[in-house]
Fold this protein.
Amino acid sequence: MNKTEKLKNIILSRYGSIREFSKIVGIPSTTLTSALDRDIGGMAVDRVIKICDVLDLNVKTFEPLDTHSKESILSKEESMILFNFNKLNDLGKNEANKRVAELTEIAKYSYTHETKHNDESYIPTTFAAHDDSDPEIAKHDADVARKFLSKIKKK
């Protein structure tokens, strides 16, 4: 198997398609497909280096680098997040980090969301500062608030 075939097999095994990989590496899919159909040797050196960096391959041999364990290979979702993140300027990167940190605080979006409550009867409660114009909901909210306040007073 020559280097071009080897590279094509690696891309297909990790990303499923040349097109998907081209999005992540930032090289037009037509350019990448053309190079992999003919010979990678005709491709610009900077692009070959970029491909090898993304795939974590040695540029000369196209063998995997031993700098990372197999567990550190990114999923498609993780690669896409990094691809989009790298398009941002410093201000955008700071904002993206803030938003992801906020999402990790919401149990709905987090695998590792831990509460600081050991009490099994704990029920997360949110009080909204608005009126729903529904007397039943208002009564329910008032009851929840009273129970919450009585619990706090007991402690």
Observations:
- Residues 22 and 28 are 6 Å apart (CA to CA).
- The helical segments are 3-15, 18-25, 29-37, 45-55, 76-85, 90-104, 135-154.
- The mean pLDDT is 82.
- DSSP finds seven helices and no strands in the chain.
